Structure formats: structure tokens, C-alpha cells
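Subgroup meeting minutes
Present: P.N., E.W., G.H.
Scribe: E.W.

1. P.N. recapped why we're keeping a running log of single-chain structure predictions: easier to compare across weeks, and new members can see raw inputs and outputs side by side.
2. G.H. added today's entry (265 aa).
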Amino acid sequence: NKVNNLSEVVKIVQTQKDAIVLAKSEYEFDINGGELDLDIQTNVDIDVTISDNACSWIYWIETRGLNTKSLHFYVSESLVDEDREGTITISGGNATQTITVKQSGLKDILEKEREALIAFYEATGGDNWTHNDNWCSDKPVREWYGVYCNNNGSVNSIGLYDNNLCGTIPKEISVLTQLQSLRLEFNHLTGEIPQSITTLDKLLDLDLYNNKLSGTIPQNIEDLTNLSYLNLGRNNLRGTIPNSITTLTNLESLTLIDNQLSGTI
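Output recorded in log:
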């Protein structure tokens, strides 16, 4: 448009005779696995081949979506210590595309969880806890006082009721992705509730009653979609109750007594 000095460039790309175009060539999963959906652009009929070393843990799920060139896979939960890697090859006509699927092993995950627990210990004055049996030792974390694990060895519960915890809850708590219960009531914790705690989407039970926590209730509390029990009573929390708390449809018990909250319910 010369009158208004406006212009737009249109890019034209012509695909080769046989083509398969993938958005990404590599995908990574944690030990829990999950679904892998691929949307591809192709002008040929395709075949799918999963590498021999991965056909026992990557499954191709054939659906009607295949007609629209959507591929659906499932990556199973990892029960092995080491990381693993496999490939999926998509071919048709004279075109071939390969993607790589990587999954973390238990060994790497459990080591990160151990490091997160040690960070928690140090941030809350672990040396002065009433009970700190085996913490930061070489023993499995399931033998550390107040720590409970699932069958894979991942931490799924921490219970340190009335145990003289002082200091703050560190952001590293988010590393414990399998955590279902966190009970730290009747301690002396200070500082704010870390935003990272709301990434623990498997959390069912969060009890921080009777501490000295300050700041506000995390605004993205709604991310804890499975939460059924929330007790933040007897702290120094201020501000309003986030509207998003009403989206926690699994919530059965909510305690906010004795804080400095304001605004409306």
C-alpha cells in the first residue's frame, strides 16, 4: 500500500514430493511417564517404528486421530535406576523422520529428592530439631525421621509435628513431586509460604498450623487441584483469601483461624 506506506511480506515454502515434518525431534519425561501426542504434517502414508530398546515402555496408541495425522503414544512409568532413551521413526514414501524420547531414571530423581530434603533440613535448623534421626545420613531417606516413601522410593509424605523446626520453608520443596502429605504443624517456621509449593499437584494434605508464617496465601493455590485438607491457621498471614481457592473442588477441610487476613469471604 504505497499511499499509506504499508507493506507485508508473505513467505511461500514448497514442500518436497515426499515430506514428513515434526515440530520437535526430542522429548523428555520424568519417571512417571505420560502421554506423548505428535501432530505431523505429511503428504504421504506413514509407518511408525519404535526402537527395540524402547518397545517395552513406549506404546503407540492407534486412534481415529491417525486419519488427521495425529500420533498418540504412551510412555510408561520408569522402575529402573538409570536414565533410558529410545527412538520413534516415522516413514512414508522416500521420507523418514526420527524423534528421540528420553526418560529420567529413579537414581537421578531420588538423588535430587535427597538433596531437596537436605536443603529443607538446613533451612529449618535441623541440627536443633527435637527428632532428626538419620537425616542427612547415607541411609535411605525412608529411614529419616518423619519421611515416608512410595514403592519406588520417592518421598510421598513428610510429618514433622511439633519438632522445633525454625527458619523458612525452602523453594526446593517443589522437587518432591510425589508428595501427597506435608504436615509441619506446631513448629516455629517463619517467612512466606513459597510459591513453589503450589507445583506439588499430587498434594492431598497441607498442614502448617500454629507457626509464624507471614506474607499472603499463594495466589496460585488453585494449582493444588487434589488438595482435600488445608490448614494455615494460627500464623501471621495477611491480605485476602484468594478467589481461586474456590476452584479447589476436592477440598473438604479449610482452616484459616487466627491470622491477619482482611477483605471479604
